[in-house]
Design brief:
mainly alpha, two-stranded antiparallel sheet
């Protein structure tokens, strides 16, 4: 029996994605002057689309089960080898990285607030509504 209908699991996957994205952006910023370093990015939508197009069907024993129940993180890190911004072969655009870092922090904070809301609801129920 799931207390929140899979919401906690989805929030956890989102937090895992945001954490991986934050680490990747931090690596890109740290290597902004490293010769021949290629900027990396975390992709999620491509992996999701591949899984959706593959026609994979999970075995369901109850109609309320999700059709595709992988709880593993579906994001991966890819390098962008198609561009070059510096003469040393590096393609890290610091302005783009800082923008993505700000966006990712907002996304992460929203997930944390939603997770806190779910856990506060559970705490209220445990205390008997008081």
């Amino acid at each position: 029996m799931s207390l929140f209908g899979g919401a906690i699991s989805s929030l956890q996957n989102g937090l895992d994605y945001a954490t991986t994205k934050n680490q990747t952006i931090a690596n890109n910023i740290a290597n902004v002057d490293t010769p021949n370093y290629k900027a990396k990015d975390v992709v999620f939508k491509n992996v999701l689309n591949q899984e959706m197009d593959s026609g994979f069907q999970a075995k369901r024993t109850n109609e309320r089960h999700l059709t595709f129940g992988s709880s593993e993180s579906s994001s991966r890190i890819v390098s962008n080898n198609s561009t070059e911004y510096n003469h040393n072969g590096n393609n890290v655009d610091i302005d783009k990285e800082m923008t993505e870092l700000a966006n990712n922090q907002i996304y992460y904070q929203a997930l944390v607030e939603r997770m806190n809301g779910k856990l506060n609801s559970l705490q209220t129920v445990i205390r008997g509504g008081a």
